Amino acid sequence: MSVKPESHSKGGGQVDARRRELANAIRALSMDAVQKANSGHPGAPMGMADIAEVLWNDYLKHNPANPAWADRDRFVLSNGHGSMLLYSLLHLTGYALPIEELKRFRQMGSMTPGHPEYGYTPGVETTTGPLGQGLANAVGMAIAERALAGQFNKPKHAIVDHHTYVFLGDGCLMEGISHEACSLAGHLGLGKLIAFYDDNGISIDGEVHGWFTDDTPKRFEAYGWHVIPRVDGHDAKAVKAAVEAARKLTDKPSLICCQTVIGFGAPNKEGKESCHGAALGDKEVAAARERLGWTHAAFEIPDAIYKGWSARDRGAEAEKTWNRRFDEYRAAYPALASEFTRRMQGELPSDFARHADAVIQETNAKAASIASRNASQNTLNAFGPQLPELMGGSADLAGSNLTLWSGCKGVSAEHPGGNYLYYGVREFGMSAIMNGIALHKGFVPYGATFLMFSEYARNALRMAALMKQRVLFVYTHDSIGLGEDGPTHQPVEQLATLRMIPGMSVWRPSDAVESVIAWTEALCRADGPSCLIFSRQKLTHQARSPETLKQVRRGGYILADTAGTPEAIIIATGSEVGIAMEAHKSLTEGGRRVRVVSMPNTGVFDAQDQAYRESVLPKTVGKRVAVEAGITSFWRKYVGLDGAVVGIDRFGESAPAELLFEHFGFTAAHVAETVLSLLK
Ligand SMILES: Cc1ncc(C[n+]2csc(CCOP(=O)(O)OP(=O)(O)O)c2C)c(N)n1
Ligand SMILES: [Mg+2]
Predict the structure, then answer these.
(1) Cα–ligand 1 centroid distance for 632 (angstroms)
(2) pLDDT value for 8
């Protein structure tokens, strides 16, 4: 329950003056940077400064000189609007984040964007700002830590042994994803996950008792968390005692509920929503300096304060100790040690490409007509043994998504070294957790649900793309072709909207061969996420020459052609490729010169050079028909205004799949007719 705490900023209560002064450096940097930018959120950094001071100075295991050190503790600021808290901490403890960058807070090209963004600032572990997702990322990181420890640690050789700390606010707890992620974290008993709740009683609209009166400690206890309630977030001793207790208890995640005053130190604005997300104003900044006893000019930090904060020596020492430990591990387990290094670097096994190619050839030779979801599972069975970094999962649809392969072992509190997560019905949580697993490194996560329910997870997909993470989102039941479950389960606009996410690679293979290639390409894509979209229903194998087979990975290619220049081109994806091929057959028999282009990944095709694209879709051939069981508008960019799209611009119906395909015009006859109508 949120209570409105008394302000201590007047100096009441027991205060460790030294610690308070260190914390005030965060407060000063935060309010000054926000003031200079005239934009940003001073409230949370000023409110959480004392907590951060204790955690970072007394506990956090990190080396500012090497933010990528494998066994560092992970720190996530889930209430990402408080970005100046993190930037201040990184700057003060000695990361390569100079004061000039704090002066350029929120400016174009700076290392200090408005919200923490992965890849912009050394030490920022994940992009946060969309509330609740940082918390789910942290759960993913803690899962990855434990699973990696389970797979690699040996008696007396704990090479993976770090904590995940996460700060969060009321907003993160109001977001539904906090339930999904924390419920799973409790179930899994993630003892090295420690969360700090900034219980300040305030969110943007004012005092939260008007809309948020959960009993948060009880809620988390019910999840199976270890809850430490009513900690005075401005009493370093109390915070320290709570962290001690949290670290001691190793079989449950901990939630430390810290009562704080938002904007602590700003005499007229602290405790009020007015300091949440706006510059305090010059007068109030001056008054806060006075109240806090901070006499230094803006962005001026005395050497003694820098010394008090520096984690450089401590960090170098900690990493050195670990390096020694890792050397001993390497001496005892050389093969495991190099596997660990390979996996943490995100490199696939050196022979993976060759292996994948062999599987592609085999699948081609087998020529099986099977559902692409089955083809996906076959691929997992073929690739799985080569890829111990796979961390699979499904949101309670393993039997439908076919995400389990023969080598899967469930991750649980008792068996932490597994490689498969039973996520339960938690699509958004699963997706953000996968982002956290990928960010932690050591794993390539894939997780599945029905394509329709990608909607539940959408913002986590966007975050995966924004952070350029190798996360594989597996979606089966990809169209009205799923049949009787009806329009609630039948995707219509999802293919198009997933393709619109910048940097998202979306594969919709047409048969078993394209399915293996899609998996291969997604796994090899180290700098971004992919969607792998599979059918429930059986798909016809398409014959391909060795030359054609090579073109599949270019996203779009000529699957069937005609002698000479085609009169018309049919472009199709997934389950509609088979229909396009039948139409091609009848049109060819009727003396028409028609080409079929299979387009399993429009984004990859668009990224090919002009000459290749022109060779597949020559400008001179304007008579084009796109066929996809999804909304038509997406395909206009390929068929032009004079072309035609066989698609579906309404919700589906509950009926057997074959009837639905017939009813909505996904038949060879209708596609052929459409081509002929263009040729008239
Ligand atoms: C998903 C999402 N919805 C809305 C917002 C906009 N927003 C940013 S901070 C905030 C209020 C958060 O309140 P709290 O976590 O209590 O932060 P405090 O004011 O205490 O710093 C909102 C609604 C957001 N960043 N993310
Ligand atoms: Mg709040």
Answers:
(1) 37
(2) 62
